[in-house]
Design brief:
This protein is mainly β and 497 residues long. It is 0% helix and 49% strand. The strands form eleven sheets. Strands 3, 24, 25 and 26 form a four-stranded antiparallel β-sheet that branches. Strands 4-5-6-7 form a four-stranded antiparallel β-sheet, with no helix packed on it. A hairpin with a 6-residue loop joins strand 21 (236-243) and strand 22. The two termini are 36 Å apart.
């Protein structure tokens, strides 16, 4: 089996630490996939732009917030240090009065506040017996008050926006069928829109909190949904894991719905299905859509932003990795291929000039490993360029070797991912073996203790899956480890109750 990754996106900017892509809010859907932008974001979740115009990204793994230049994407600093003020399992951030940051945290019975200039901990803005027992997100409403999701009660609580004093339970427990709320935002008419894990978006009266309707009924669009925001075009954008086909292929994606009716409009952005989760999203001062993605070991984690479609004919590039028994190649195809000469770039460096037949095979070498990015541009000075495309080369080349040469179509030994992830009760691990192997597939907690044995013994070559039932395990991060002969690979799992 060959590895391929198609990216239909224009490069916004590329830095030494990776890249950040941006997607313009236009009427056309795009398919987006990209490389790591924000180095050091172990598990990116929430993101927002501050009063200074810079981008702030929540790192769920290190309990911190990182700051990036809002115009260039350059890393500036760790704005809120790890565990500051007891920060634990942060999920999302919102900017409120004074430009300060208010954090939604998964387990803390509080909403901590941090200085909008220095990042210093200012205290728990919301605390006490009326605070939510864990929250994913919070938002300031048109009335200036703070609305906080209560994950344990499936409700929304309201607190005074100046003092943090409890006002009321604005949306009562389970109102309208609300279950596992993940994000909230205010939209047309000042009404409150709450996104739930299962993919529905519930609408509540902005004055009374009364249930109005299920504004977006999942209808098989999402396996899970996380973030939601109204865009500059007035439509609703929802991020999560999209159900791509009847076989349960989950693709991290952003889907757009009509802002007046809730009707499905289009798949606005999506990344490679081997990646992890599309989490929260926001719109920047430039009107572009930014969203966070966990790539796990299949792709880079980071904040993604993609340009919208350009005018005229676009140059669409696809790339596929191929191993012929001796060396790795990147096979490129692009269209339109009207005979115009094209230059081929690998990781930003010119590798082939004036190619004119719409296809090219570039030799990466026998020892190639990791992710390689490719692009073609019109040969003449100032010519248009294609989208970026990438190929992912596994690190176990030996699994592809064969004494008879080509082994195209052979499954490499790999731990291919967990779906869904994060998960609430169970998830399915997929793995493949290049040959019959002694397998040990297990899940461990962060102290290294084995908490579940999923597979053991000699397994035949091919694709396999194993189910992980979390049972009574507490919420948190776990590690799945596949050992197959000399091959070892791990993946992080997030259990969210």
């Amino acid at each position: 089996m060959s590895y391929s990754l198609t990216i239909r996106v224009f490069l916004a900017f590329l830095l030494s630490g990776g890249m950040l892509l941006a997607l313009a809010a236009t009427s056309q859907a795009q398919t987006v996939s990209a490389s790591l932008f924000a180095g050091g974001i172990g598990y990116p979740t929430g993101l927002t732009f501050g009063a200074d115009g810079n981008l702030y990204a929540v790192d769920h793994a290190s309990d911190s917030v990182r700051r990036y230049d809002g115009a260039t994407g350059a890393f500036l600093d760790v704005y809120i240090s790890s565990g500051s003020g007891g920060l634990d399992f942060p999920m999302n951030a919102t900017v409120g009065p004074g430009g300060h940051f208010y954090m939604g945290t998964r387990f803390a019975e509080s909403v901590p506040r941090f200085d909008g200039t220095t990042g210093a901990f200012l205290g728990n803005f919301v605390s006490g017996p009326d605070a939510p027992d864990g929250t994913y997100s919070a938002a300031f409403g048109p009335d200036g008050n703070l609305y906080v999701l209560d994950d344990s009660d499936d409700a929304v609580r309201r607190f005074d926006g100046a003092t943090g004093v409890f006002v009321d339970v604005f949306v009562s427990s389970g109102s309208g069928g609300l279950d596992a709320p993940r994000d909230l935002t205010f939209g047309p008419g000042g009404h409150l829109y709450v996104g739930a894990h299962a993919g529905n978006v519930y609408r509540y009266n902005g004055a009374s909190g009364a249930f109005m309707d299920v504004f977006v009924a999942n209808g098989g669009v999402f396996e899970s949904a996380i973030g939601l925001r109204f865009g500059p075009d007035g439509n609703l954008f929802v991020s999560g894991n999209r159900i791509a086909n009847a076989f349960g292929d989950y693709k991290p994606a952003v889907v757009r719905f009509d802002g007046s009716t809730g009707a499905f409009m289009d798949l606005y952005a999506q990344v490679d299905p081997r990646f992890g989760d599309a989490n929260y999203l926001t719109f920047g001062p430039d009107g572009r859509l930014y969203f966070s993605v966990n790539g796990f070991e299949f792709g880079p984690s980071g904040v993604y932003v993609a340009n919208g479609p350009g005018g005229g004919d676009e140059i669409a590039l696809t790339a596929e990795a191929r191993y012929n028994g001796r060396s790795w190649f990147a096979d490129l195809d692009w269209s339109p291929s009207d005979g115009g000469k094209m230059d081929v770039y690998l990781d930003g460096a010119l590798v082939k000039a004036a190619r004119d037949d719409g296809a090219y095979s570039y030799k990466l070498g026998r020892d190639a490993t990791g992710m390689y990015q490719l692009q073609v541009c019109e040969h003449e000075s100032g010519g248009d360029c294609s989208n970026l495309a990438a190929v992912a080369i596994p690190n176990n080349v030996a699994a592809f070797e064969s004494p008879v040469g080509s082994v195209e179509g052979l499954q490499p030994t790999a731990l291919r991912g967990a779906f869904p992830n994060p998960f609430r009760t169970s998830t399915t691990l997929q793995f493949s073996l290049a040959e019959a192997s002694a397998v040990h597939l297990a899940v461990y907690d962060l102290l290294g203790r084995e908490v579940a044995l999923l597979a053991e013994g000699v397994w035949e070559a091919g694709a396999h899956s194993a189910s992980f039932e979390a049972g009574q395990l507490p919420s948190g991060v776990y590690v799945c480890r596949l050992t197959a002969g000399q091959f070892v690979q791990t993946q992080r799992l997030s259990l969210l109750r």
